[in-house]
Every structure is written in C-alpha cells, then in structure tokens.
Amino acid sequence: MKLSSFSVILIFVVMMVMGFALAPLLDVGTDPTSRQGKQLTIRCEWPQVSAKVVEQNLTAPIEGMVSALKGVESVSSRSSFGHCEVNVRLKENQNVSTVKFSISSMLRQSYAKFPKGVSFPMIEGGEIVNGQKANHESQLLLTYHVNADMQPEMIKKLISGMVVRPLETIDGVAKVEVTGTTERYMEVSYDPMLLSACGVTPQEMQDAIRNYIGKDEVVGTMLQTTADHKQERVAFRLVTANKEADLASVPIKKIGGKVIYLNDLAQIKVKKQDPLGYYRVNGLNTIYINVYASADANFVRLSDAVQEEMNVVKSQIRQPLYVHLAYDSAQQQRDETAKLVGRTLLSLLFLLAFVFVVYRSFKYLSVVAFALAANFLMAIIAYWAFGLKLHVYSLAGITVSMGLIIDSTIVMADHYGYYHNRKAFLSILAAMLTSIGSLIIIFFLPQEMQDDLSDFAWIVIVNLVVALLVSFFFVPALMEQWHCAVPRLWSCKRRFVVRWNHIYHRYLLLTSRHRWVYYIALLWAFGIPFHALPEDWGMDKCGFLTDYLGGTSQMFVDYLDGSVQRRNADERKTLHVQALMPVGGTAVQLNDKMILVEELLKKYPEIKEFVTRIDGRQGEITVKFRDGVDASFPYRLESMVIGKVITIGGADWSTYGVSERGFSNSIDLQYKANRIKISGYNYAQLYRLSENISGYLGKNPRVQDIAIETPGFENQEDEVYVDYQKDRLGMYGLSPYDIHRELRKLLSPEYVGAYKDHQMNVDVYLKPLPVEQYDLWHMENSQFHVDSLQLFASDVMKLQRREAKEVIPKEKQEYVLNVAFNVLGSYTYTTEYLDSVMAHFKRNLPVGYHCEMPSYKGADSERANYWLLLLVAVLIFFICSVVFESLRMTLVVVSMIPVSLMGAFLTFIITGVEFGSGGFASLVLLSGIVVNSAIYILCQYAKIQKEKSTGGMKAYLCAFNHKIVPIYLTVISTIVGLVPFFFEQSEEPFWFSFAVGITGGLLLSIPAMIFVMPLFLKF
C-alpha cells in the first residue's frame, strides 16, 4: 500500500510534535557526561606508620584481594607515610556496581585481620553518572572575594554579621561559608626541667587540665516516665558544670602539703594558628564568601537572586571593603547557552538566506525550512531515547550538521524535481555513510579527546540518520503536495554551459593520455610522509628527501613544529614570580618575604592586578598588566623584581612569562641525564638489585652522581633518623622506647582538649618550651633525663640524615625504582655503554625482575592519531565498494581525500591558525564529507551508463552537468553553516580551527572534483 504525500506529511508532523514535547526533558549542561566510571579508588589511613610498613601490611594484602576479582583490568597503588591508595581499573564491559559491592564485602570481612590502628578502607569512584547531581549534595554556586586594608579577623566578623544571614534566607541557598582566617588556640607551655624539679610529670598536667575542661558527650540511654505514665528511652548526656575559676588556677598536684597550680609551672597564651597558606589580591587581605546551592535548585535563577541581594548588602556597608565576584558556576551556563543558541540561529539564518538567494523561490525555501525543522524535532526524540546530553560540544554538533542536512535536502529536491523519483537516495545514503564512518574514528582517539567529542559524534550521527528519513520520505512528499518545481539556475546561460562543456571535453581528452605524469605530479604535491615513517629507518636524517619530496605534508609538519613558538609569542604577557623555601620552611616565613615583593608591585599603576598564592613552603605572584601598557614595561618590571628578590635571602626565586629565559637563582646539582628502570614483585629485593646496578655502574669512572630514585617522587624531602646503639642501651638498662618517650616530651606538643567559656572556644595544646629552641645541634649536644639517668644523645644513638623514601608506588603489582646517573662522554659512547649495561643485567636478573631504559612516547602516540585518517579512507573504501561494485570507481572516490587534505594543510600554513585538536577533528570529518561530491557524480554516471547504454566521456559529461549545481550548493552550504564559528577565534579556538580546516579542504575539493577526479576514470 502506497502512502499519499498528505499521509506522509501528517506522520512527520505528529513526530515533530512529539519531539517538541520532549524538548524540555533533554539533559542540558555545560560539560560532557563523565565517562570515568571504570576507575575505583580504595583509601586507607594508618597514622604515624612508615611507607614500608604500610606497603607490607596494608597495601599489598588489599591489592592481592582486589586483583583476584573477575573484571579487574589493572591495579596500581601508592603507599606513603600513614596512608595508602589503591587504584583499580575495570574492564570495559564490566558491571561497576557488582565489582564495587564485591570489594566492599571483601574489605568488610578482612578488616578484622588488618593491623590495629588502621582506619576502615573507603571506596570512591565508579559511580554511574548521567549528568544529574545527587539529591542530597549541595554545589558551590558563587564565590566572592572581600578585600580590605584591615586584619582578616575583623573582615570576617564584619561580613558574618552583615552578609551571611540575608543570603541564607534566599530560597535554594543551602549554606553560606566565610573563610580565609586562621583559628585561635590556647598554648600551655612549660619547662620540663622545672616540672622534673617539682616532681610533676607532663601526664599529670594533662590529666588535671582535662579534668578541669570536662566533657560534653552522650554516654548512653535511660528510661524515663512521661506525664501520661508511659516509659520512653532518652539519651543520657554527661556535661561538666561551668566553673568560675579560670584555667590558670587549676590545681595540678599536692606536694608536701602545698598545692601546685597550673600558673606555677606553665605560661598560658592564646595564639593564632600559623596559616598553611595565603591568598591576596593586589596585596590586600582576602576573605572568601562561598554560597552553596541545593542540588535541585535552578542555578541560573538562584545566582541572579543572590547577586541582586549581595548588591543590596554592599550598598549598606559603610566600611572601605572591596567585594567582587570571583566565581559564578551559572555564568558559564549563561554564556555557553547564549553563544550556542546565537551560533545555531545565525547558521540557520545564513543557510536559509543562501538557499533563497540561489533559488529565489519562497516555495522551495519553505521545503528546505520544513525539512530542517522536521530533522531537528525528530532528532530530539532520539536524543531523549538514547540519553544524549546537550552541552558545549554536542550543541556545536547540531550547528555543524546543519550544512550536511541541507546537502541531502538539496540533492533529493533537485533530483525529485527533475526526474520525479527517489533514485538519488542511493548516492545520499552512500554520502551519509561515509560521513558517519569518519565520525566513528573519534571513538578510537585517546580517552581525553573522546570525553569531549563522543557526544558531538553521536549528535551528528543521529542528525544524519534522521536526515536520510527526511530526504527519502518528507522532502518528496512536500514537493509533490505543494507542486514545487526546482528553478533552473542555468537556463538563461546555456551558451556559457555549451562553451564550458566544449572546454571541459577537451581537458578530458588531454588528460586521458600520459596519465602517469599527472599521478606523479599529484604525489609530489601531497608529498611522501617521511615524518611518519619509523625512526629506526633513519629517514629523518635525509633532509634532501624531505625538502624535495615532502610536499605539502612536510610543509604542514614543519608548520606544526613551529606553532608552539608562534603561540607563545602571541600570548599576552603575564609575569610569574615563584618562591620556594628550604625543607622545613613555613608559609608564615615565606609570606614575610612575599610581602616585600608586593610592596614593590604596588608602586606601578600599569599593573592591572597581581595575585599572591602561598601554599606551604612554596608560593607564586601572578602579575597581569593593563591593556595598552607600554610593550617594554613588563620587561622592565621583571628586571626590577629580579633585583629585589636577589636581596631577599632564605628562598629560591624564579620568574617566567615575560622574557624568554626568565630568571632562577636555584642551583640544581642533582640533575640526572640517564636512568635505568627496574621493576619486580618484592620491594626489599628490588632495592638490593638497584644497589647492585649502582655498584656495577660505579666501577666506571665516567659514571657520576648515581642515585636510586622513586619514579614520580625523585625529590623527596630529607629526614633525620635515629640509629640506636643497642650495646650502650643494654649497658644503661634502657630500651629504645624509654629514649623515644623522653624525647617526645621535649619535642612534641600534645592536644589536651577544647576550652570554652563566655569569651572564647579554643583548643588547648600542652607544649614543652624547648620545642622552638631545639635544632639538630641541640639534640646532639644537650642532656636529657631518662628515669634517674642524665644522658647525652651521643651516648646511646647516632643521628643521621637521609632521603625520606616515604612514597612507594606500584603498577600492576610490580614495584618500580630508577637508578639515575650521569655519564661523562659523547652521545655515541653513552648509548653503547648503556646498551652493554642493559644486556648484562637482563641476563643476570632473577625471575620476576626486569630492567629497561625509560622511554617517552608522547610524540609517537600523538603521531599515531594521524594514522587514523588512513582508517577513515579504508572505511570509505569498503562503503563505496558495496555501493558501486567497482574497484576503479571506489579508488576515484578515495582519491578526493588526499587532495582535500592538501587544501586543509595549505589553509593552516597560509593563515597561521593554530591547529590543535580542532584541526585534527576537521581532518577527520573532512575525509568523510569531501567524497560526497564524487559519490553524487559517479552514482549519476553509473545510472546513465545503465539506462542509456552509453559510456565514456559523453556519459560523464552528462552526469557532471546534472549534478554540478547541487554539488556546488552543498559545498557552499556546508561552508556557510560554519561561518558563525569564524567569529569566535579567541573564545573558541577549537571550533575556529575546526571551521578553518573544513573550509580550506572543501574549497580545494571543488577544483579537485573538476580536474583531478577524471584522471582516475577510464573512458
């Protein structure tokens, strides 16, 4: 039963209405859907335990249990001081929830066998995500920076009173935090010698303070009879009653009838905790206001409401505070949504205007517009059914696919208006399949590129599949129902067409002879890719070959090599000043030095902003300059900063970002040029083998600076360790524990509890006075009491320094160490010597251990991506082989790919546009769409040969004349659809390079289709 055109239109209208109704249900966001899901992380704490003990007693057993589970692909771990982390990667098709449940059950059963003091292991990751947040989670919505020339505590107190409460009353706000200050604590410092003379121990002092502070806790439950004579169980809370006396008057002990109080033995001070880091803008102290939103809140509306309320609050603050918005999670969603909607509408406007200008028919324009509307509304049904998320990349896929959708509409409308049948569908199907085939390559790219482009690929694939249905059913039905005829564009210029056919026929005759000359010319123009050949072949040393036979491909490779330098030169100058304190340095000490640099920067109005960040013993000042500043000022400022920092001692300073070489006063005497990687299953044995390799290398006088390193943690901090002399300890009748106990009294502050009264609520720490005075010299040369003995440290132990080695990584249940060293000699000598060393130890290492030279394959893996273009050509070859059932015609179609790639290469070289991942994506998609024009002509050529029993040049000219106009229009429409991307070079470099690459390839594909394609046909 044949459906009428009205019935077909009615069915499509119903589906369009369904798509419109499902549009609000689509998952819309700013970021691609996370595809991590196959990674689990097990974390466990074992406080104050060395990495080796953690590895042997905790990490290794967990790894052994996990690696035996079905579905685990690989296991890696890292053991450090008091902590272990085990990373589990699952196989691709494995059920994550099942494996996670199995690991949880196994850890729960084995926890009783773990050493005492180990925390219960926590499992993270592997969640099944769909872009929606869990209902119980709150998300950071806004962050404000509050700067003022006053103490941070005063800023926080002011902000907490005037800002927090109004913001918390807004519906949808989960909480408001004010951070950026340090807490206070109470320090009770005592002299151990005085305590010893009075007969009081630090433990007695701790107990007295804890008894005074008391407790506030639930100790159990009890039954209570209510007023209606019912019994219910209530919590029993133990609270220490408030005391009028202060902490200084706490009695410690009664000795000889005299009560000794705390203030007799100790000094009590309230201090600020030393900050672990600082953050300042333009040298002003900064307080952070973090506003969190409920997970089910509308972020855009809530952000607008909070900002409006904040503006009201700011107008009421009289003090000189500078409040500025530093982070808005909804701003990106606003900007991207507006940008994508504007880009899509602009692309749609350009395409429809192009169709109207070319055909000058409102009826034909209506057919194209309704076909586009049907395509997108029906595609919404597929988006919803397959759970596709609309975000930055996927919405851009809609814009890109517009040109391809109009291509199928124009080709079918042109063919149906001329022949009144749907036989053009075969060529449209082949063209769409080649485009889809090129997009499939995205799923073979590295994972980081897949995460960004996979949704883009699926959106384009869905749109192209729907476009096939629209072009086969909907477009012919519209043209038949509306009696729409395709305007003849060249009817008024038949003389030009006849003259062109005559010239083109002579060109075909000319090129049909001595074709091998043209083949060589094309090969020379594209070039032989010597750069892609294996390095072992040594072709990179044959410079004359690459210069004369490399062609455009070698020119493109040279362009890529210089793109990084050009990009760095074009970037706006930003001065970075970095500082690093020696081991043991603190953030407070570094902050004093950073303030000196800030005072210098405050003098210059040419500076737009400078931001200071200090984290532990390292810090950085980032200096941004105002627009229009003198080009020489950044260089002059860097010179002045260098002159300032070299006068500030006690830290290593460096600068970069302005001058090419920057500055550094750090002396790195530990650089090692060569490394031997050795791995095995037992860490102690592996370390001994590493020492054997070090000893073997040390026999060669040319090998210097030998060290055993942990990969990834080469520069671990030094530690001082104690080597007890057990014979001396036995002579004094002591144990290492006795020495350790007494040293801890001298060096370690103890947390006592929390003190609370009507004025303060602070933590209390008990600290011996020698803590701040004791350094390594005092430790070695001072006496200390052990029971009734008075000893020097040198009497019973030796203090030595070594690298901490407090991180032990493991990959696939193998420990890894590097033997690093320098070889004095030429490159040839070093290579030959290292080869002999490797050959020696590969023969002699025990079973389960192996060594190798570390290799860095970043360039090779990046180069491997370009071989995926060859895979695109293979896919297109098989698709066209099925469609044409002719090897020659298939080769003709595939020949369009390298010619179009030449156009993309030359476009990037001439324009100097940065290539990047957007350029690579353009080459992938370009390979799939440039063959469409060849497919349209060859399908028509085969049809004419079959129906009219004519062949040769006459049939080809006939097919060329029939399809050249729609082909021109499809190529131009694809380029027009990409025009909005050209307006976003600075904001969207990915899409700009993507549009540039496709445009350049398509423009060259037109002359390639006219002049190159016939070279491969046999007339």
Low-confidence stretches are 128-136, 857-862
* Shape category: elongated
Overall mean confidence score, pLDDT: 79
Radius of gyration: 38 Å
Structural class: alpha+beta
Main pleated-sheet profile: 10 strands, antiparallel
Residues in helices, as a percent range: 40-55%
Number of strands: 33
Please work out how many helical segments DSSP would assign: 33
Beta fraction: 15-25%
Query: Could you tell me how far the N terminus lies from the C terminus, measured between alpha carbons in angstroms?
Result: 43 Å
Task: Write the topology of this structure.
Layout lengths: L4 H18 L4 E2 L10 E7 L5 H17 L4 E9 L2 E8 L5 H15 L11 E4 L12 E11 L3 H17 L4 E7 L4 E7 L1 H7 L3 H12 L2 E10 L5 E9 L11 E5 L2 E4 H4 E7 L4 E5 L2 E11 L4 H18 L5 E7 H31 L2 H25 L2 E2 L1 H28 L5 H16 L6 H35 L12 H18 L3 H12 L16 H7 L1 H20 L3 E7 L6 H15 L5 E9 L2 E8 L7 H13 L6 E5 L6 E2 L9 E7 L2 H16 L4 E7 L8 E7 L1 H7 L3 H12 L2 E7 L4 E8 L7 H6 L1 E4 L2 E4 H4 E7 L3 E5 L2 E10 L3 H18 L5 E3 L5 H9 L1 H17 L2 H8 L1 H16 L4 H14 L1 H18 L3 H26 L11 H24 L7
Parallel strand pairs: 1-17, 8-27
Antiparallel strand pairs: 2-4, 2-5, 3-4, 3-31, 6-15, 6-16, 7-15, 8-13, 9-10, 11-12, 14-15, 14-19, 18-20, 18-21, 19-20, 21-22, 23-32, 23-33, 24-32, 25-30, 26-27, 28-29, 31-32
Helix pairs in contact: 1-10, 1-13, 4-8, 9-10, 9-11, 9-32, 10-11, 10-13, 11-13, 11-32, 12-13, 12-27, 12-30, 12-31, 17-29, 27-28, 27-30, 28-31, 29-30, 29-33, 30-33, 31-32, 32-33
